[in-house]
Write a sequence for this structure.
């Protein structure tokens, strides 16, 4: 929070804007042939999970480095009730909150799996290309906006 309120926040906008522009260019310039090759159109994508331990470990590591998950955990842990009006100890409150967090994440992951299976039937290579293009343009627009805001704030 102090970083955005300080004198150097224009540098953060310049760096963030540049990063968005690079990501946008990668999305926009991605070749259509990668999405519409004959292999993508004729063969369905086959996912194999022969080693369940490695699959679970990969999923755990992806969630461990996900900033959204980290932010969620830190937010929930900082909002824990400090008074124990229900007669529970702080350890019991902490345990209940961790269980609620795990149930929430597990439920959302199951929901994402169900929705992904339904979406797999609808989403074609052409749709993937169009979504990638639109997301790239959005990133370019916001990246340019942030970059100019940072440069103008720096020059003032």
């Amino acid at each position: 929070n102090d970083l955005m309120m300080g004198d150097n926040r224009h540098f953060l906008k310049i760096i963030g804007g540049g990063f968005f522009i690079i990501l946008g260019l990668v999305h926009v310039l991605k070749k259509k042939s990668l999405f519409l090759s004959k292999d993508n159109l004729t063969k369905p994508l086959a996912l194999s999970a022969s080693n369940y331990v490695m699959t679970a470990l990969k999923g755990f590591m992806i969630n461990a480095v996900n900033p959204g998950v980290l932010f969620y955990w830190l937010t929930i842990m900082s909002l824990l009730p400090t008074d124990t009006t229900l007669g529970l100890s702080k350890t019991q409150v902490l345990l209940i909150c961790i269980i609620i967090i795990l149930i929430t994440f597990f439920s959302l992951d199951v929901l994402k799996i169900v929705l992904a299976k339904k979406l797999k039937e609808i989403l074609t290579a052409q749709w993937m290309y169009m979504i990638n293009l639109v997301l790239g343009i959005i990133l370019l627009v916001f990246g340019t906006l942030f970059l100019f805001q940072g440069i103008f704030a720096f020059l003032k």
Q: What stands out?
A: The helical segments are 2-5, 9-29, 32-36, 38-42, 52-64, 67-78, 90-122, 125-155.
